[in-house]
Design brief:
Radius of gyration: 16 Å
Structural class: alpha/beta
Distance between the termini: 34 Å
Largest sheet: 5 strands, parallel
Strand content: 15-25%
Length: 158
C-alpha cells in the first residue's frame, strides 16, 4: 500500500485529490507547487487520511475554508505511539540503494524528520478563507504548521 506520495513541483491542474482517500496507509502527502484549485472537500468523511503525518499542499490555488472535518480525522497527529514511527521504512531505502537508484534528498530529509516524530501541516500560499478551525488544537503531535499567505482569520488554537 502506498505510504509516501510526492507529486510536488509539477503543473498538475485539478481540484482536490479526492481519490487519495482510497489510500488508507498514506502517511506523507506532498503536492505543493502545482495548480490544484477549488475546495478541499470529501464526498464522504469516513477515515479520511487517518495515518497522515506530513501534509504539504502549499503553493496551489485552494479557495475553501480549512476543512475541519479532515483535521478531526487526522488521528496520526493526535497521539504518539513509538511503534508507529516506522512509516518511513528502511526497506524502501535499502532497496533503492541496492538497486543503485537515486535516493531523493527530500526522502532522506523526511526520513530523518519523521523518525523524530515530526508532524507537519503546510497549507501556505493558497487562497484559503475563513476562521482557523479550533480543531487544530486537537492535533497534539503537530510540530510544524504553516498557514501563511492565505485569507484566514482568528487565533491558532494551542
Amino acid at each position: 500500500m502506498l505510504e509516501f506520495l510526492d507529486i510536488g513541483n509539477n503543473q498538475i491542474r485539478d481540484t482536490f485529490l479526492v481519490w487519495l482517500e482510497s489510500l488508507p496507509k498514506l502517511k506523507i502527502l506532498i503536492s505543493r507547487s502545482n495548480k490544484f484549485h477549488g475546495e478541499m472537500k470529501s464526498r464522504e468523511f469516513n477515515f479520511v487520511f487517518p495515518k497522515l503525518r506530513v501534509i504539504d499542499l502549499s503553493n496551489n490555488g485552494f479557495t475553501s475554508p480549512l476543512p475541519s472535518t479532515y483535521l478531526e480525522m487526522w488521528n496520526a497527529m493526535k497521539g504518539f505511539h513509538v511503534e508507529h514511527l516506522l512509516y518511513m521504512q528502511t526497506d524502501l531505502y535499502d532497496h533503492m540503494f541496492m538497486a543503485r537508484l537515486a535516493i531523493p534528498d527530500e526522502y532522506i530529509y523526511l526520513k530523518t524528520l519523521t523518525n523524530k516524530g515530526l508532524q507537519l501541516l503546510k497549507l501556505s500560499n493558497n487562497d484559503l478563507v475563513g476562521l482557523i478551525p479550533s480543531v487544530l488544537g486537537t492535533l497534539t503531535r503537530l510540530e510544524a504548521l504553516d498557514l501563511s499567505q492565505n485569507k484566514l482569520v482568528g487565533r491558532i488554537p494551542l
